[in-house]
Amino acid sequence: MNRRRYLLTLGASLAGLAAGGTAQGRSTARPGGTAPAPPLQWVTAAVKGPGLSFHTFQSRAAATEVSFHIYTPPAYAADPTRRFPVVYWLHGSGGGVSGIARLSALFDEAIAAGRAPPFLVVFVNGLRMGMYVDWANGRAPLETVIVHELRPHIDANWRTIATREGRLLDGFSMGGYGAARFGFLYPELFRNVSVMGAGPMQETLDRTPRASRVQAEDLLRDVYGGDQDRFRAVSPRRYAEQNAATLARGSRLRLVIGDQDETLQNNRDFHAHLTRLGIPHDWIVLPGVGHDPIGVLTALGDRHWAFYRAAFAPAGG
Predict the structure, then answer these.
(1) d(CA 121, CA 252)
(2) Residue 33 near residue 69 (C-beta atoms within 8 A)
(3) What is the pTM of this model?
(4) Rg, C-alpha atoms of the chain
(5) What are 198-229's pLDDT values in tens digits?
(6) Does 261 fall in a domain?
(7) What is the CATH number of the domain that holds 165?
(8) Domain annotation covers residue 56
């Protein structure tokens, strides 16, 4: 099933390129004679930080090199026979590069203090507004690149625990939306899913709490082909409905949101949606916190690392 899904998404991506899309950073004209879309930055600047290294791999779906950063804890070098769980960190809109060093330092400090077991962190390149989906026009096949190309590349080149139990999806804002999408669509690949300050979680993309109507229309057009039915079809809401029984049986899920976050109501509605579907999950509302990833992590405190400890606890432990 997973391979069939991969071939379908890859075929759609390549078909989009053949139809005139571009994957290597060139601008493309928009419908109606509007300004060209900005180029896609498949390779970002390298960031330095504790345990961080910068890498690229050749993506068949995107037809170009794609970059990522990876954090490895000190135990990775100290014990060359040991395998480690992996956190896939999905950033929010804007590209996420500026936050990598700060986040890697937080992970490093928590592991050093024993608040979490050693793990790897893959900081994916989700583009500035990639939305972690395969775009309708084939221009940015983000889902295929990350789930079906980057994930196996990591497992082949680093000592990972290459099972669903050994993987954790975490992300904020656009990245929270992406974590929910991947985790609910591919429960056979990702058992542990953390969804923080997520958006867009509403049923239609005609308005967003943190963007104007025009910005929402631009996003709907560029990513989802201007089609609300497509937006709904690839949403975490739809995937939760499709895989409710599987998610209820074997996934570890949490939703985290600040009570000053403009996306609170949409996340509250999504929490209610999961509850109606009978999907167990943690629902955490943080008082006095807005749409701020570091503020969320600070307010969570040890609850954040408790989720990681539970996710990566030895079987039967």
Answers:
(1) 18
(2) no
(3) 0.89
(4) 19
(5) 999 999 998 766 666 668 888 999 999 999 99
(6) yes
(7) 3.40.50.1820
(8) no
